[in-house]
Prior knowledge:
The protein is α/β, with parallel strands linked by helices and 394 residues long. 20% of the residues lie in helices and 30% in strands.
Amino acid sequence: MITFEEAIKSVLAKARPLPPEPVRIEEAVGRVLAEDVRSGVEMPPFDKSAVDGWALRAADLARGRELRRRPGLIQAGEGFTGALKAGECVKIMTGAPAPAGADAVMMVEFSSEKGGAVNFSRGIKRGENIASRGEDIKKGQVVLRRGAVIGPQHIGVLAAAGRSHVRTGALPSAALVNTGGEIVTPGARRPKFGIYNSNGPMLSALLRRDGVIAAPEIVRDEPRKLRAALARALRSDIVIISGGVSMGDYDLVPGILKSLGVKKVFHNVRVRPGKPMFFGVKGRRLVFGVPGNPLANFLAYLAYIGPAIRKLAGRPDHGPDFLDGTCSVKFDPRTPRRAMMLSRLESRPAHRLSPVDHSGSADILALAGARAFAAVPEGGSVKKGGRTKFLTWR
């Protein structure tokens, strides 16, 4: 049996980044950029007006406040025929190209129009309210570096640079199998001795948060059906099996996985909850067998599965991210294993932890009221006011 920390290291050692792939920029949020992105254009690509107003020569307003109006209106996406002459102005809208001969744009608020003339209430500096060609981005300039985790704020930059697709780390495919003859899909008719499948939708939601889509499949603890389901699941990069990994008569998963060519890396971890945790590999495929209780499922995702998915996708921030907190009371789990205690988390004072009372590892309501797992050393405790590490899903 290995330690909790050794289990995490073993999983991440086997999670090797997948080959990059091209994706549409709208679908790239959360992915890691696998190339330097250079702009194919200048931004702006031409001198343009930053306001609605009048395009003119700044020197003209140094000599007087009235200019002749040129007919027409320059709108965004349109050009201006000819060039602006001395003593002239022309109406222009935000984003429209500045006409030849103009070197400033006066905001419409400082003007009054009468007949063919426009009067201005103040002077203006050369270049005022004109966004110059290439002042934001030069053609060929690197706008995003390889290794950046793409956020929504980056999509506009990629689009402005002329990119519709970028090469990013690939998201792994995943299969999610829930074992047990007693579980049924939420919303379906529940037999007298059945329970609704809470682990499957919960794991599916956690996967979706990392950009991976997988619907849970419920399989009875029957060797033939279970073997067929696991064989199908092993076509995916990540396989998550909830239940069937302990030592009971119907805990068939480890043996079937072995018969399907899965090599065990570890089985059983000195941690509570989640001692019977199984992890194996088949080639590059990662296989996680999680004990069937909800708290173990949730912790396994935070500690092992989520970090492995993010590392496969090439993310440098794959985690797991253990933070430092202070215990509001004594944490005394009374177990020889590493205890990950379900906890509340207060941000003021910073990262203050207090334990959540629960009836056991199947207490899904207690999990819903918690915000962290606080780490307590093997066979030990943490005194009131003591410091400890914790995992959170804020």
